[in-house]
Amino acid sequence: MTVKLNSEIVEYAVKKSGESSAKEATQATETPAPAVAPVQMNEEIERPEMLVGTTYKIKPPVVDHAMYITINDVILNEGTEFEQQRPYEIFINSKEVNHFQWVIAMTRVMSACFRKGGDVTFLVEELKSVYDPNGGYFKKGGVYMPSLVAEIGATVEKHLERLGMLEKPERSEAEKAILEEKRKEAMALEKAAEAADNAQDKASGFPANATLCSKCNTKAVVMMDGCETCLSCGSSRCGG
Fold first, then answer.
1. What is each CA distance from 155 to 54, 101, 142, 145, 216, in whole angstroms?
2. What is the model's pTM?
3. What are the E-state strand segments in 81-121?
4. Which of 56-65, 68-77, 165-174 has the lowest mean pLDDT?
5. Is residue 94, in this structure, part of any structural domain at all?
6. Cα 4 off chain centre by
7. Which of 42, 110, 112, 230 would staple 213 via disulfide (CB 3.0–4.6 Å)?
8. 64: domain range?
9. pLDDT band at 19 (very low <50, low <70, confident <90, very high)
């Protein structure tokens, strides 16, 4: 094909056969392959044959039997720098059959949220904000739980903290020092109150385990011969 030149030729070079293809091959080699995005938790991830599980035992005073909470995790991007462990399903096992229906419903909904992916930490706040109309309780260590559901939420929170999905709040050294000082003050006041009660019991001349008499309002009722008897006024439940 004839090409018409409208300007003067100032420089030229002869193109050798195969030079273009070699240059293009070199550029293709030097160009890095596009990075593969790490897999995030989603509903399309099939359940593996084996999952890593952790079981937590709780024994709330509002139930007769202990409850065992098992959370199974799936490992994503295993063997890469993006490897992470995420919750996949949750089960709660107990001999307490009174709670069977709502426990099954709750664990199924939570497992569905786990498999859906995204930010599942909202479950902790929702569960811990459930209050029992009959009142909460104190678990071992003096931690108040407003309901049984709230303690389940606290267990899930502990698991998510272990996986790094939630940050455990850390108090500063100054806050720890203040709390320790307040704790010592409270324990000192409690010991002083116990000492005063013991002194009062000794001064009254009645046993320390005596209860209040409804007749003379004296803390002098004890169990004698199978009958509650007041050592102050002689009143007895058995007709004294």
1. 11, 20, 16, 12, 50
2. 0.61
3. 84-94
4. 165-174
5. yes
6. 79
7. 230
8. 52-163
9. low
